[in-house]
Amino acid sequence: MDTLLEERRLVSRVFRHWTEMSAAKRFASLDDIDPWLVGDDWANCVLIRVDPELDRSTFVVVGKNLLPQHNESLDGQPIAACPKEPLLGAILKYLPRFHRDAGPLGIAGTATHHGAPILFRAVLLPLSKNGACIDHVLGAANFRALHNGEEKQLRTRLQVAMLKVETGQIWSVYAPLLGGWMQAKVTAVEGDGATLRPTGTMQTITLKPSEMMRYPERYRFISYS
User: Fold this and answer.
1) For position 7, what pLDDT does the model report?
2) Alpha-carbon span 163 to 211, nearest angstrom
3) What is the mean pLDDT of the chain?
4) Contacts of the segment 204-211: beta carbons below 8 A, 24+ positions apart
5) How many domains does the chain have?
6) Which 3 state secondary structure label does DSSP give 225?
7) Are residues 37 and 62 in the same domain?
8) Structural domain containing residue 197
């Protein structure tokens, strides 16, 4: 799992493209996601229009490598048309997070795709035309077959983590020296340091954003304030 999380391949390229397009604003927009810039990676991407009534959200386009069944298009179909078991269904169950205010989300673990067990890494990226309300979500996933017995050797427990630490986020932080779990608000992010203020105090703590995103067992994103 560590190897899968660290590899800089399809998911990293799509995330980098989204980051570049949202550099001057909080969210990239649908118009910023140019399929020619993403290139061949579109085969492993999904674009979803998010409806105010989440169940009415629809697929704009689903790449051929993510289709639950070969040669069966889901373009224009409601998300309910996707079975829950395949890889795409496993990713979709995190879509409700984007019905509210949310940042980019990374997911890694195991699933079943075309009837076979796989090891996957995925990203879900919010898109907004007005920079405030999320109207589309761009997803990307890469995967490979999970070999017999491999699940006993790898850390295959599903891991979900925020991919960007921003001012205004509320995190749950495990700090044994301060009494265990506590909630804290991100008040500033500068360079390789993030300043957080625990709830109910004026004191602050400084953490590394890279560690907050890498170790969900100690740092858990809750919401935006």
Assistant:
1) 42
2) 11
3) 83
4) 205/173, 205/175, 207/173, 209/165
5) 2
6) coil
7) yes
8) 169-224
194: which residues sit within 8 A by CB, 6+ positions away?
165, 186, 188, 206, 207, 208, 209, 212
Residues 111 and 33 in one domain: yes
Contacts of 2 (CB under 8 A, 6+ apart): 155
Instruction: Tell me the whole-structure pTM to 2 decimals.
Output: 0.74
Is the same domain home to 23 and 57? yes
- For 4-13, the pLDDT digits (tens) are 443 447 888 8
Q: Give Rg (Cα) of the chain.
A: 18
Domain shared by 129 and 188, yes or no: no
3-state secondary structure of 139: strand
Q: Nearest to residue 195, comparing CAs of 184, 210, 182?
A: 184
Residues 88 and 130 in one domain: yes
- Separation between Cα atoms, residue 134 and residue 89, nearest integer Å: 20
95 with 176, same domain: the answer is no
Q: Are residue 122 and residue 204 in the same domain, yes or no? A: no
Nearest CA among 181, 161, 163, 159 for reference residue 172? 181
